[in-house]
Amino acid sequence: MGNKQTVFTEEQLEAYQDNPFRQRMAQVFSEDGDGHMTLDNFLDMFSVMSEMAPRDLKAYYAFRIYDFNNDDYICAWDLEQTVSKLTRGELSAEEVSLVCEKVLDEADGDHDGRLSLEDFQNMILRAPDFVSTFHIRI
Predict the structure, then answer these.
(1) Chain centroid to CA 60: how far?
(2) What span, in angstroms and rounded, lies between the C-alpha atoms of 48 and 61?
(3) What are the φ and ψ backbone dihedral angles of 103, each rounded to 5 degrees?
(4) How far is CA 64 from the centre of its chain?
């Protein structure tokens, strides 16, 4: 019998379980979008979420995670979902709306009222801490 090694520590799995986007992440990384992940899906997710993954790859998957309605754009509704999850419901509806308006004002390059992947990537370029915060330590 071979030695068994733990691939992920308990703290790493707890960090994932405490993530307010865990269900959405499972949906994005599962093959059919239902959130039921195979081992390969799970490993893909941890690869993207590793500190070594390139910024563009992380931005692409962050965009997909924040695109709750899966229409290939981040609209005001998607932003509201994102801000509510990030703040864990601690902001009023008015405050969430204000944050979403500010994000769209700053990041919507073509002024169509929603963020394309290109808009999102440009916004990420202006956020130097994105790569260091969009990860799960492996």
Answers:
(1) 9
(2) 8
(3) -60, -50
(4) 7
**Which amino acid, one-letter code, is at 19?**
N
Q: Provide the H-helix boundaries in 1-138.
A: 10-17, 22-29, 39-48, 55-66, 76-86, 93-107, 117-125, 130-133
Nearest to 135 by CA among 31, 30, 61: 61
Residue 95 pLDDT? 95
The pLDDT tens digits of the residues spanning 1-42 come to: 444 444 555 665 555 567 888 899 999 999 999 999 999 999
Full-prediction pTM beyond 0.85? no
55, 126 Cβ separation under 8 angstroms: no
CA–CA separation, 119 and 116 (whole Å)? 5
